[in-house]
Every structure is written in C-alpha cells, then in structure tokens.
Design brief:
Strand order of the largest sheet of chain A: 1-2-3
Oligomer: heterodimer
Number of domains of chain B: 2
Radius of gyration of chain A: 13 Å
Order of helices and strands of chain A: EEEHHH
Distance between the termini of chain A: 24 Å
Number of strands of chain A: 3
Structural class of chain B: alpha+beta
Strand content of chain B: 25-35%
Radius of gyration of chain B: 19 Å
Number of strands of chain B: 17
Largest sheet of chain A: 3 strands, antiparallel
Largest interface: A-B, 16 and 17 residues
Order of helices and strands of chain B: HEEHEEEEHEEHEEEEHEEHEEHHEH
Strand content of chain A: 15-25%
C-alpha cells in the first residue's frame, strides 16, 4: 500500500498496487489500518486504542464509526477479517 | 510539409500519410473526401509527410457493398482493430478524431492520461478533470478564444519523468447548446460542419488558435486542478478542495494510471502536490473567465 497525505487536510489517500485502486480514508481509518498492520486483531483492542488516541470514551458512536470504517476497508480489500 | 498537397492527397488515399500531433506520429489512411477536408481544415499547421508508420495507425474507409452507395458509411480501423460500429459517411472526418481519442486513451502509456481539458497562462496549466457533459470543453474554448493557451479539451497528458502536462491542441469538440454559445462569442473561429453523434448529441469541432498549435512542444506545469460543472443560471462558485479529495477525483478520471502501477499513481500525487485545487460551478462565461483570470494573476 502507498499512503499519501497532503498538509492541507487530515484525510489520507491509499493506493493499492494489487488492485490498482485508489481510496480516500479518514485519519481514524488510517490509524485502524496501522493498528491491524501492526498485529491488532480484536475489535475491542482497536476501538480502545482509537478511543485513547482521540482522548474519548468507547461509546456507541465510536463503536459504530470503528465498525463502519473496518467494514469499508474490508469491502475494498484494504484489510481481511481473520474471523467473523 | 504542412499541408496536404496533391502527392500527399494521393498517399492519404493509398499507403497513408504520417501526421505529427505533438508527441505522437499518427499514420492516417483514407480515401474519403470527408477525412481529407477535415485534415485540411483542422490539421493544416501540423507536420505531415509521406510515411507508412506511426505510433497509431488510423484508417477511415468506406462501407462495403451497397453501403458504398446507399446511405454510405465510414468505418474506422485503429491499429488493425475495429472498435466502433460503422457510422454515416458524413461523419468520416469526426470519426478520425474519435478514433484518435480511442487510441490515445488506450495506448499512450508513456504518459498518465486523464480525461480533462487543459489551458495555460504564463507557463502554468489549469486542468479541468470531469465527466463528459460537465462543460469542460465549453469552458476551455471560452478561455482559449479569450487569450489563454489551449492544450486540450479531452486529455491531460502528464509526463511521469517531469511532472509536466503536454499539449495536444486538436479540434475542440462543442456539443448541443455550447455550439451556439461559442459561435456567437467567436464567429471568426474556424468551425467544422454540424453533425449528430452516436449519443444523439449535436456536435461541431472548432479549430484552436494557431498560436496554441505552434506551441505544441511546450509543456506546462500543473498549477490548478479545477473540477468544473456547468449549471444553467448558477452564479460562479469557486470552492477550494483538499488535495487528497482532488487526487481521488484525478485518479477517477485517469484512463491508465493503474496500468502504469506505482509510477502512474505517483505522477498524479506529484501533479496535485504543488497545485491549488478547486471545484467550480458556472453558467456565465464572461464572469467565470474574469474570475479564473484574476485567480491566475494573483
């Protein structure tokens, strides 16, 4: 994966050489991808780490946003679930 | 040699001629008068010589059998392939143009090719990436005939080695209402005959200024990426866009960045890096020309 971020915004663009596709991701989605790449595999770990980064509790909104970001990245092939 | 003299007309009908259009050598062959007239009208300033090869080979040939005489047809052959259905014979000239678009979009992998119009002021290019029908040809025509340099109304050709955008000042394709708008503003421009394309749109080709054609070898630095949208009655609106969003937009309009792999992607990243990015909504050409000119002067 090749990641690109410009100084005029928080969003990231990722290029997937395997598919040839380009995707726009939020900073939080990028952080989740980094955590997964580093070996984090449980949803609770991901949500708690992200909450810590953002200095906020693991509430319903963050849980939903985390789940949506993971689903989006799964859908476009940026991550693969290890179990369902 | 810059025009089709009698020997080249003869070669065009038989073995073909080689037309130099910017970085491309295009081998053209056609016995149809519509193609010869089209080349005379729109490509008179481009070098042409008697040669049998090129980067692309485009033949426009008459239909066979009864179609030579009854509702005559024109058929395009591009590098030996036949990607289009036969079209009415009166579209033979424009068919050459569309065949060339097809070839560049699919074969010109030395560049990252983006579906976009491109104009230039002071050595800096303004790129208008957009879907068909967004108004990029109309906008680029209006800017061109108001003094900007015209690079293309169809392709931004980004050079991976230099990051520069290369000109391809071929005829500007005006459609439907844009025909009357540009004709009324610029009656002295050379226009081709009006026709109807396969999408049932009226079209006319307009010749770019000779000053743009003669600078066909001068590349420009991408300085503005502006995604345009024509909306009837809308006031001019120019809104900054984050570069990450503009990059995704540019990639979405590229024919071949993924064919070139990482090099293709990095060429797009580089094009955006030092450019200012905007979305543009417009309807009043005088106003949008003034606003964009002011922006580039700033």
């Amino acid at each position: 994966m090749i990641w690109t971020k410009y100084p005029d915004g928080d969003d990231w663009v990722v290029y997937n050489p395997a598919s040839g596709d380009v995707h726009l991701l939020t900073a939080a989605a990028r952080r989740l991808w980094e955590l997964i790449a580093a070996g984090a595999s449980s949803f609770d770990t991901l949500a708690m780490t992200l909450a810590g980064d953002l200095d906020r509790p693991v509430d319903e909104e963050l849980t939903r946003a985390t789940r949506d970001a993971l689903a989006s990245m799964d859908r476009v092939g940026l991550i693969r679930p290890t179990s369902r | 040699m810059t025009t089709l003299d009698s020997s080249l007309v003869s070669a065009l009908r038989t073995s073909g001629v080689q037309l130099t259009i910017g970085p491309f050598l295009v081998h053209v062959r056609s016995s149809l008068p519509g193609v010869r007239n089209y080349l005379d009208r729109f490509y008179g300033e481009f070098p042409v010589r008697d040669a049998r090869d090129g980067h692309f080979s485009v033949s426009v040939v008459p239909g066979r059998g009864l179609r030579r005489w009854i509702r005559p047809q024109a058929i395009s052959l591009i590098n030996g392939a036949r990607p289009f259905y036969p079209l009415p014979g009166n579209l033979a000239g424009p068919l050459f143009e569309w065949a060339l678009n097809w070839a560049i979009g699919r074969v010109a992998h030395r560049w990252v090719v983006v579906h976009a119009a491109v104009v230039e002021r002071g050595g800096r290019a303004m790129i208008f990436p957009a879907e068909p029908g967004a108004g990029k040809s109309t906008l680029s025509a209006a800017l061109t005939y108001s003094g900007w340099r015209f690079l293309s109304d169809e392709f931004a050709m980004l050079d991976p080695a230099t990051g520069l955008v290369w000109p391809m000042p071929r005829p500007i394709s005006l459609k439907d209402g844009a025909i009357e708008i540009i004709r009324a503003r610029h009656p002295d421009v050379i226009y081709g005959p009006e026709g109807t394309n396969v999408d049932d749109e009226r079209f006319v080709h307009a010749k770019p200024p000779v000053s743009s054609i003669t600078r066909v070898h001068e590349a420009a630095v991408p300085a503005w990426i502006v995604t345009p949208r024509y909306r009837a009655g809308a006031p001019t609106s120019i809104v900054p866009v984050a570069r990450a969003h503009a990059l995704v937009q540019l990639a979405g309009q590229s024919f071949n960045y993924n064919y070139l792999g990482v090099t293709g992607y990095e060429t797009l990243v580089r094009a955006i890096e030092h450019a200012q990015c905007f979305t543009l909504e417009y309807s009043d050409l005088d106003d949008v020309i003034a606003r964009l000119t002011e922006m580039t002067d700033a």
